[in-house]
Amino acid sequence: MSSENASGQRDARPTGLQRTWRGFRSHRLALAGLVVVSVVTIVGLVTYIDDTLLKNTLITSIYYSPFEPRFVPLQGPSVAHPFGTDTLGRDVLARTIYGAKVSIQVALTAVLVAATIGSLLGVLAGYAGGYTETVLMRAVDVMLGFPALVLAIGLVAALGFSLTNVIIALGIVYVPQFARIARSTALSVSNEEYVDAAKAMGYSTPHIVFREVLPNCLSPLLVQASLLMAFAIIAEASLSFLGLGVQPPTPTWGQMVSDGSGYLTSAPWISLFPGSAIFVTVLGFNLIGDGLRDALDPRENAERRF
Amino acid sequence: MRFRYVAIRFLQTVPVLFGVSVVVFIIIHSAPGDPVVNMLGIEATDENIAELRAAYGLNDPLYIQYFNWLTGILQGNLGQSLTRNRSVTALIASRLPATLFLAAASMAIAIVIAIPAGIVSAVKKGTTSDYTVTIGALTGVSIPNFWLGLVLILVFARTFSVFPSGNYISPTEDPAAALRHVLLPAVTIGTAFAALLARQTRSSMLDNLNQEYVKMAKSKGLSSRKIFIRHALKQALLPVITVAGLQFGYLLSATVVVEQVFAWPGMGRLIWSSVQQQDYPTVQGAVLIVATLFVLVNLIVDLTYSYLDPRVSAS
Amino acid sequence: MPESLLSVEDLTTEFATAQGSIRAIENVSFDLRSGERLGIVGESGSGKSVTARSIMRLLDDNGRIADGSVELDGRQLTDLSERELTDVRGSEIAMIFQDPMSSLTPVLTVGKQITETILEHRDVTKAKARKEAIELLERVRIGDPESIIDDYPHQLSGGQRQRVLIAIAISCDPSVLIADEPTTALDVTIEAQILDLLEDLVREREMSLVQITHDLGVIAETCDRVAVMYAGRIVEKGPVSEVFVEPRHPYTGGLLRSTPRIADIEPDLLAGNVPDPGQRPEGCNFAPRCAYATEECHLEDPPLDPVGAREVACIRTESIGTLDPIPDEVRQESSRPGDGDAIVESESVYKEFSSADSLLDRFLPGGDPPVKAVDGVDISLVQGETLGLVGESGSGKTTLGRLLLELTDRTDGEIRFDGRPLADVPDAELRQRIQFVFQDPNSSLNPRQTIGTILRYAIEKHETTADTEARIAELLTEVGLDPETRHEYPHQLSGGQKQRVGVARALAVDPDVIVADEPTSALDVSVQGQLLDLLDEIKRDRSLSMIFISHDLSVIRHIADRVAVMYLGRIVEVGETRSLFKSPQHPYTEALLSAVSSPDPQMDTERIVLEGEIPDPKRPPTGCNFVTRCPEAMPECKHRDPELTAHDGGKVACFLHHDATRSETTGAGDLNDGSASRPEADNQPTTDGGGES
Questions:
Q1: I want to staple C281 with a disulfide (CB 3.0 to 4.6 A). Which of A6, A190, C295, C296 is the partner?
Q2: Whole-prediction pTM
Q3: SS3 category, B101
């Protein structure tokens, strides 16, 4: 006898995933964020393909190349060059579009890899407890003792300034953050009776960890992933602003802002547009993160006021 | 029992600091290039190189080098800069005050703005004030700080010449000028920090206002003001303290970039220039000091929290 | 008709939710006269708490009073502004909240929370207020009020916190006191103390009391009049002596008949479930479950009509007449297997939990001593029987249950399954043959798995070649659920249904023994009976042996063949259910039994109220664990620990009945025989199994 109302109809309450989507959907800002991020991601993907596989033919055929200094430098925005041209005479819009490639690559790769590794470690630590937990968490504490960007700079300095190394550096910086959240969630989940029940049933440890504990740890990790993607974009931009990240000629937004910093009064558009691109993308990820958090948090659900 | 708790927390920090030093050491020693070669330039002879390497102890196995370095640190000796003619300790000592001043100013600005904003937005949830604060916080957290710095310079320093763009003046020399000069960089860093704090304050406050004991206080016939201040506020601010401490790391990170924008002679700029110059001992020392500072701040925050929260202090 | 102090008329409250606006209570009306004690009783979803909060205007932001009025001493509370209300709350009408832990502000001392109330409503100095606070603490029977007053809430026990709540409530001498489930979160013996205290206070200060609870026994013992609520409406109202003895409304009758009682009676169960607030049926809310319902009942909500001294909301009450609150059937003794083999046994089992937070905490000197959860327990479960394990918090009953199937590792002692030590039993076999049913329906099922998935894992664990779908359907039917439930998620089921799934899961591996840990504690009274019946049936059909853990003696009475009573990690008495309940040997068992309130107001119970709190399991008293509260304590009880010894058909650990002392060595697996250790053969006169009939 499932719950039936007076007219005998089955109570069709949706699954967890559906409810989450509904909650998310109702949060208009979060949707806006999703749109923005999707656009940037698509641009990033397309430019990635163009750059690695098509040798820039796509962008040069539709628009201008981001690399060739063909135009008159330091020209303001116009119909021909909606974002103006930079110090070397390159089109700023083309470069801004290409900048998306690096940002998206770094954000998605670094965070997804860090999330996977960090979550697994954290869940293991939270579930197993004892010495495993202590050792893992001390290691996490050590890594978290470094301010994020400082650690990233140190790592990049050690490894070399390249895209791959930036991804690795940020990945290393983010693993402990996921591990910590995963552990505390896993800890509280492990105290739930259904985990005990699984033990009483004699299920194997991998089954318990992956089928019982982990799926219930996902929500805060998802929120964290999206927020860290926002941070990753800022981090990568900061690194390239300082000249410590991806090197020219690959255009990155941070680099472009740095290039334009000497021309703030005379040609502000060189810094302005890439800076705005960073802002909008980061805002998008933050909105998604917020939306996810609100949708997944049972308390925030529901109530209107009178 | 308080003493025992404090002692335990202290003891727990030691291995962390130790671990930090190991990590710093490993990272720096994985750097490419031979620092001695860089120092001496291309014309160096093999004998010169070998001589200098021996002098710096670079031929010893890693753990010996680490041990020597560690003992040196504990005696206050962080090594010698490779590119500048000073000891690392002296370099750091000359830069640290500037960063600390900047960090303190940023934190002050952030706290003064964020906490009242967060409280107001929680108490008036759903109204315009709430939305303003929420959106403001969202913006603040999403703006890249270097860009914000540049914009502030553009507007306030160049266009309107209201505030100078950086240039550290020690507050002990000339407080008024010091404040004027630190304002723009502090606002730059403080904005993101304020945004984080405001959001945290808001959610903590909201949590609290919904608690059963707040209802209970209401049932006693206390006025809303009293309930708010005595029952909700103190409790709500506790987790904010913790978050502020944790985000201090963000503050330190931000100084690296912002000091660059404002030509502020602090630790951040030191780290950056040392990396550029491949002055590894300085990078090592500076990163170590920054990380140690962060760990200690966290410890202090932890102990302060435990002192303030009776559930921990009076158990 | 005398002036009523508090007059509630047609009170209707609604809440705004994502599914639209929901009426939590509708047309609630009652009067409270000066000095009167009114009980509001109902199960979850009845709206009793909402009623209390509506009266005090303490609703959440999304709630509001949609209709009706609340008049206190002539003033319309519903019309007052917030500011005006602050004068009324606390000084004229006060509320005692349900959960003492979450109702006290953690960052303020207890004293502060009392004095601020006094200072708010009366014009006294701080010093005077503090003095009064101390007096109040004394009045609510808190020991050592001078030092407690500066303590923080988390430093006090549950009972002490509840007393503080009471002290706060009476501090300004309100004329009306509303007690919202004041004892639900407390242990039975502490509950007895608190109810006793409330009764005294109400009488002494001439207050009127509104007692809100789901416990019929509490109402029967403490209230003059009662209002029974169901699904947001009052269904019956009147003097307790009438309503509980000759109920008229079918729900009231059903409630009384389905409540498990201590007496030798088999409860008569109510079918169906309480409807959700958003899904109340057209017409009478109870009609779908009512045996007497007719077509007309489904048309409109029946109004409260007077019948004699009471009011009943039932259009058919004239024809139904009064009902019998006590079902006829006398309990069937569940098939007693006789003294068979013990299938599960424990011998001197110990379990300690460390109180350390971290590794460092454990090794550094000066930390808290470990918690002795189970302190040397010998117990045996005979094949085919149901053994009840009874105790309050800190008794160790749950831990013991878990130790028996190695869900928790024991610190010392021996446990045998089927005659073999657990170490010799392979994991796979143990996990298949003993299973566990958990307590909290909201936590025992993985929220991300469908019922079908949950059962499938269990079935596949047992036999990999089974026709899983068929087995799932079989299991669900066996526990009384629709096989289609397999597609649903836990959050879509009710508490009772979730518990049934938990049972189904345990049965999926075809066990021989089931340990059930408080499986009914989180359920409503009418649903409890259903689950208990189910367990009984399953046990018979599958010839299982069962250990049933509970703090609720009426439930144990209903289901157990033998009972073991635990206190602070030890077993203090074991015996056959009937004889133990009739003539308990151990003073603690006596007190426990007398603390249970009966829903029959005509039963005159002389209640034993124990003094003091349950001791801290980290620092148990020297000598007998019960010595700090035992009304029959003798001087030697402080120095020697009684051994659980056979006596009069059962076993008891008390020097009133024998002289055997426990050997204090931890870990020496000493069997029952404690007589070896005593030098003086001081012959105590053996008293007869005293206690009550």
A1: A6
A2: 0.84
A3: helix
